[in-house]
Amino acid sequence: MNIASLLGRAARLTPNRIAVFEGTAPVWSYAEWATLAARLAGGLVESHNLRPGDRVALVMRNGPDYLALLFACWRAGLICVPVNAKLHAREVAHILDDSGAALVFATADLAGTVSEALGFMLGRQPPVVAIGSQDHRALMQSEEAAERDAAAGDPAWLFYTSGTTGRSKGAVLSHRNLLAMTLGYLAEVDAVSPEDCILHPAPLSHGSGLYALPHVAGMAAQVVPESGRFDPAELASLLRSHRGCAFFAAPTIVTRLMNAGVIGDAELAGLKTIIYGGGPMYVEDSRRALEVFGQRLVQIYGQGESPMTITVLPRGLHEDTGDGRLDHRLGSVGYAQAIVSLRVAGSDGAPLPAGEVGEVLVRGDSVMSGYWNNPEATAAALRDGWLHTGDLGSLDAHGLLTLKDRSKDVIISGGVNIYPREVEEVLLLHPAVAEVAVFGRRHPDWGEEVVAALSLHEGASVATAALDALCEAHIARFKKPKQYLFFDALPKNSYGKILKTELRRQAG
Ligand code: AMP
Q1: pTM of the predicted model, to two decimals?
Q2: Does domain 5-391 have CATH number 3.40.50.12780?
Q3: Distance 320 CA to ligand 1 centre (A)
Q4: Residue with more model confidence, 333 or 407
Q5: What span, in angstroms and rounded, lies between the C-alpha atoms of 382 and 410?
Q6: For position 497, what pLDDT does the model report?
Q7: Spatial contact of 388 and 361, defined as CB atoms under 8 Å apart
Q8: Could you say which of 29, 192, 206, 348 has the lowest number of CB atoms within 10 Å?
Q9: Residue from 144, 146, 52, 55 nearest 97 by CA
Q10: What residue's CA is closest to ligand 1, atom 13?
Q11: Residue among 405, 409, 375 nearest 393 (CA)
């Protein structure tokens, strides 16, 4: 089953329904969207000579063209490689190299990043099609390609996550994985009817793009904000114009939306559901969100290796039933989604009793088949048929999972993951730096902010501006530490491991 068939189905059943809006302006009906995707698929095959299984990278800000290209690639049997638009050119280069991208689509705002990335590439440089260019327009006028039948296990989406080793890895998601995620959404996250819509203030390269699928299955509309990003006032105005709106938001975005004070009765009239997840939501923030948004919140927990599909805390469990357990429920990530099996396991992989903390393992049709071209990382993550998430948690007697810690020490800032090791490796490039530990400090707006603790070689000195410059040369700006703390020696335990907990405490 090719996941692109969802679009063909919607186009046959509701050809004239508006499928895509940019802000409040209708862009395509379902029939128009499906025709465009078929033409683009034809162009990719004919003009660019792409063959099933080739990778197409999308380095694009949110916009209707993004949605057209996803379905065009799938229709032609190609593998989409959505690239986070905030990455540094070197990181984009790594993804293009690692995936062996045969073609890149880039929006104008990211053209500079892409051309810089091509300069950093080690392998063959793929051609780039600029969105809105003559090349792109020609592709949109190609002969329609027939839909290629895909085996359920064929890869459809390479989901690049940052690895703890500092190099991002491509989780291989198949058509089956995407279908399982779609059905899981419709069964337990939120019902979708053709009168509804999904708003995309969050990046289409991540969860929001995945959530386009259940809304195509449900024949609802996609609404891409004109700005292509999260802007509280713009989002509020979309909620006043559209009805039955759902959207995905990282917890920090939910908080920022609340803090902006733009949500009232007029906006709530259009809002059906906020699906939050991707990072921890503090209980006090959940309680406040319930006051502002009412019973419109659903939490999910997932990771790139099983995207959006490990647990769900449905809207019913956000209700205060007077049993005194609301805070416990809000502090949890809910229960295992019906499409997966979940276990909290000890180091031997055996399930632990309720209440005990262990690693969260998951298996099911939404779990990746492995990492692209990376058998070692695959073997470490997928053992005995279970995905080892690296997250620590415990189950209660009712099956609610509470995440205790992120065993990978991931910093989640503004809903985006930052892996300390990646930043640490860059700072260690400076000859004056002897030791470094990067960690997250709680921040009222961003969830966490990046802080670096350093010790220098004897007699050496370094200006923080030099460290900033080093980061700017290697990694995305949002990963750059907001503060540097200097120590004679970093605090360590008896095994010589740096004590990040102690550093976090000292940094306040
Ligand atoms: P990514 O692969 O970039 O989507 O990051 C996934 C990681 O984010 C997970 O392994 C968790 O550590 C964290 N995460 C995702 N959803 C939640 C949630 N609802 N609550 C707490 N942490 C979460």
Answers
A1: 0.87
A2: yes
A3: 25
A4: 333
A5: 20
A6: 57
A7: yes
A8: 348
A9: 55
A10: 279
A11: 405
Domains 5-391 and 411-507 share a fold: no
Instruction: Report, as an integer, the average pLDDT of 118-133.
Output: 96
Joined tokens for residue 430: 């400076």
Which ligand 1 atom is nearest residue 207's CA? 4
Query: Would the CB of 358 count as within 6 Å of ligand 1?
Result: no
The rounded distance, in Å, linking the Cα atoms of 244 and 18 is: 14
Q: Where are the domains of the chain?
A: 5-391, 411-507
How many angstroms is it from 415 CA to the middle of ligand 1?
Answer: 9
CA distances from 290 to 190, 284, 298, 320, 330 (A): 17, 10, 11, 10, 10
Asked if residue 384 lies in contact with residue 351, where contact means CB atoms within 8 angstroms, the answer is no
CATH homologous superfamily of 411-507: ANL, C-terminal domain (3.30.300.30)
pLDDT tens-place string over residues 224-283: 999 999 999 999 999 999 999 999 998 878 988 998 999 999 999 999 999 999 877 878
Q: Give yes or no for a contact between 263 and 248, defined as CB atoms under 8 angstroms apart.
A: no
Mean pLDDT of 393-412: 84
- Give Cβ neighbours of residue 465 (< 8 Å, ≥ 6 apart): none
Per DSSP, helices labelled H in 76-192 are 89-99, 111-120, 134-140, 175-184
Q: Verify whether ligand 1 is closer than 6 Å to residue 298 (CB atom).
A: no
Report CA(4)–ligand 1 centroid distance (Å): 27
Q: Which residues, in sequence order, are CB contacts of 98 under 8 Å at separation 6+?
A: 160, 167, 168, 170, 372, 373
Cβ of 169 below 6 Å from ligand 1: no
d(CA 13, CA 34): 12
Q: Is 406 in the pocket of ligand 1 (CB under 6 A)?
A: yes
Ligand 1 contact via 391 beta carbon (within 6 Å): yes
Nearest in space to 408 (alpha carbons), one of 395, 399, 416, 417: 417
Q: Which atom of ligand 1 is nearest to the CA of 410?
A: 12
Mean pLDDT of the chain: 94
What confidence tens digit (pLDDT) does each residue in 3-57 have? 999 999 999 999 999 999 999 999 999 999 999 999 999 999 999 999 999 999 9
